[in-house]
């Protein structure tokens, strides 16, 4: 029942369906920006608050299990017509269980969110790898598919996911 409750915001936010298949969360992942801003499903962040890459902690598995983290924006160029879906912002592989993303291998460098039109969702997905150093980076950041990437790299269903919303900041809001 707890896993169903954890999935609900991902279903309501259409992350399940548009980005991911339904899955059973089995690992705890925490994503924190600027040391103290925890990412919770559906919360909004200003783009100026997410310029530097976040700390992503994997609380599950063990040092012998490895994980891949994918951060993607499924709302490119805008949520009403996301014809470039998805844009990949960050990929880190070979993250040992019970550590954080800094222990992994960054295969796509972090690109800070800069939404232009509407409210965009930025999704963090964690996959368990079958073995180490088996994940290949995508050819392009645009027209990325989290599902396709997982298939190509023989990653199973996700073990954790969380997303936040962001929209373009007006000059007045930046002050």
Give the topology, please:
Blueprint: H1 2-12, H2 15-18, E1 28-33, E2 37-38, E3 43-44, E4 55-59, E5 66-73, E6 87-96, E7 105-108, E8 120-128, H3 146-152, E9 160-166, H4 171-174
Parallel strand pairs: 3-9
Antiparallel strand pairs: 1-2, 1-4, 5-6, 5-8, 6-7, 8-9
Features:
single chain, 175 residues, alpha+beta, Phosphatidylethanolamine-binding Protein, 3-stranded antiparallel β-sheet, 4 helices, 15% helix, globular, Phosphatidylethanolamine-bd_CS, PEBP, PEBP-like_sf
In words, what does this structure look like?
InterPro entries: PEBP, PEBP-like_sf, PEBP_euk, Phosphatidylethanolamine-bd_CS. Belongs to the phosphatidylethanolamine-binding protein family. The protein has a single domain, classed as Phosphatidylethanolamine-binding Protein (Alpha-Beta Complex), CATH 3.90.280. 36% of the residues are buried. The radius of gyration is 15 Å and the shape is globular. The protein has helices at residues 2-12, 15-18, 146-152, 171-174; strands at 28-33, 37-38, 43-44, 55-59, 66-73, 87-96, 105-108, 120-128, 160-166. Helices cover 15% and strands 30% of the residues. The chain has a six-stranded mixed beta sheet with strand order 3-9-8-5-6-7, with no helix packed on it. The chain has four helices and nine strands. Strand 6 and strand 7 (105-108) form a beta hairpin. It has 175 residues and is α+β, with helices and mostly antiparallel strands.
């Amino acid at each position: 029942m707890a896993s169903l409750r954890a999935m609900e915001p991902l279903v309501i936010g259409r992350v399940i369906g548009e980005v991911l298949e339904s899955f059973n969360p089995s690992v705890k992942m925490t994503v924190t920006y600027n040391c103290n801003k925890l990412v919770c499903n559906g919360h909004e962040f200003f783009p100026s608050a997410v310029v530097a890459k976040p700390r992503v902690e994997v609380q599950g598995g063990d040092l012998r299990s490895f994980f891949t983290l994918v951060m993607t924006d499924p709302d490119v160029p805008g949520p009403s017509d996301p014809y470039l879906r998805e844009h990949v912002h960050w990929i880190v592989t070979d993250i040992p269980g019970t550590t954080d993303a800094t222990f992994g291998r960054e295969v796509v460098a972090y690109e800070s969110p800069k939404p232009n039109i509407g409210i965009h969702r930025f999704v963090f997905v964690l996959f368990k790898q079958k073995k180490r150093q088996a994940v290949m980076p995508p050819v392009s950041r645009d027209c990325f598919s989290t599902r396709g990437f997982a298939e190509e790299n023989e990653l199973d269903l996700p073990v954790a996911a969380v997303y936040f919303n962001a929209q373009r900041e007006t000059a007045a809001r930046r002050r």
